[in-house]
């Protein structure tokens, strides 16, 4: 009997892992890194489980160790105006909203203090689209295993964190139901410009969890629904 229950628990654990994902690989001009080289290893690197609290310190980068993981992670050199991105360890198949934030890293990208203030700005998003005829949302990210975006060419040179975030909305009809899949890459931006990124926000602090783009029943949209409202600040494009 014990062996039977052990087998059942192992099968359930495997299903839980398969049901979620991590985002461990950084893409720099088409070159894909190995796992956790330039990306801070996350606390869910074995479980694949999400973050659900938007107020916990781990909501920033979900790193394995808030004090030591940054220093154990390498910093990639990237060029302002170049294409970078992230690759997950499987399909990003939960329906949701995908975005990317950046933060000037002080004193350095590999320091635990980086990104702890009101320093974050959004540089890219992939939002669901709404059809008024079918009254349904379509989620582009459910077909992805990786995604790329352009670092704004006017971004000043220096060290930054790049934070990828997918907000999975399949069980987001109650507070705390939205699932956040988070990944932070450490980079040194070269050949930058003289832009002023913004608006700047703190992470955690950017969300309350009650935003209509986070607390939402995607399977039973309200009658007055006219489109998905992306949470957080507007995208800074440089």
Task: Give the helices and strands, then pairings.
Elements: H1 2-19, E1 25-28, E2 31-32, E3 76-79, E4 83-87, E5 96-104, E6 118-126, E7 129-131, E8 136-138, E9 146-150, E10 158-168, E11 179-190, E12 201-202
Parallel strand pairs: 3-11
Antiparallel strand pairs: 1-2, 1-4, 4-9, 5-6, 5-10, 6-12, 7-8, 10-11
Task: List descriptors.
238 residues, mainly beta, Coagulation Factor XIII, Chain A, domain 1, 1 helix, globular
Lateral arrangement of strands in the main beta sheet: 3-11-10-5-6-12
Q: Mean pLDDT across all residues, rounded?
A: 92
- What profile does the largest beta sheet have? 6 strands, mixed
Poorly predicted runs of 5 or more residues: 1-18
Helix-strand string: HEEEEEEEEEEEE
Tell me which CATH architecture applies here. Distorted Sandwich
């Amino acid at each position: 009997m014990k062996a039977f229950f052990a087998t059942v628990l192992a099968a359930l654990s495997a299903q839980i892992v398969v049901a979620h994902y991590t985002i461990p690989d950084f893409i720099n001009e088409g070159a894909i890194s190995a796992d956790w080289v330039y990306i801070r290893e996350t606390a869910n690197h074995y479980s694949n489980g999400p973050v659900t609290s938007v107020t916990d310190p781990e909501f920033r980068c979900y790193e394995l160790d808030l004090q030591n993981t940054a220093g154990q992670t390498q910093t990639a050199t990237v060029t302002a105006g170049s294409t970078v991105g992230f690759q997950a360890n499987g399909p990003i198949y939960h329906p949701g909203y995908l975005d990317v934030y950046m933060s000037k890293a002080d004193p350095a990208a590999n320091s635990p203090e980086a990104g702890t203030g009101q320093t974050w700005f959004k540089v890219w998003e992939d939002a669901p689209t709404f059809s008024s005829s079918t009254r349904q949302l379509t989620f582009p990210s459910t077909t992805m295993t990786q995604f790329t975006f352009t670092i704004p060419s006017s971004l000043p040179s220096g060290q930054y964190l790049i934070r990828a975030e997918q907000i999975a909305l399949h069980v987001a009809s109650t507070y705390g139901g939205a699932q956040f899949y988070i990944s932070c890459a450490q980079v040194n931006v070269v050949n930058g410009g003289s832009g002023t990124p913004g608006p700047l926000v703190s992470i955690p602090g950017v969300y309350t969890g009650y935003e209509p783009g986070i607390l939402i029943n995607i399977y039973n949209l309200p009658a007055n629904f006219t489109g998905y409202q992306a949470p957080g600040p507007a995208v800074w494009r440089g």
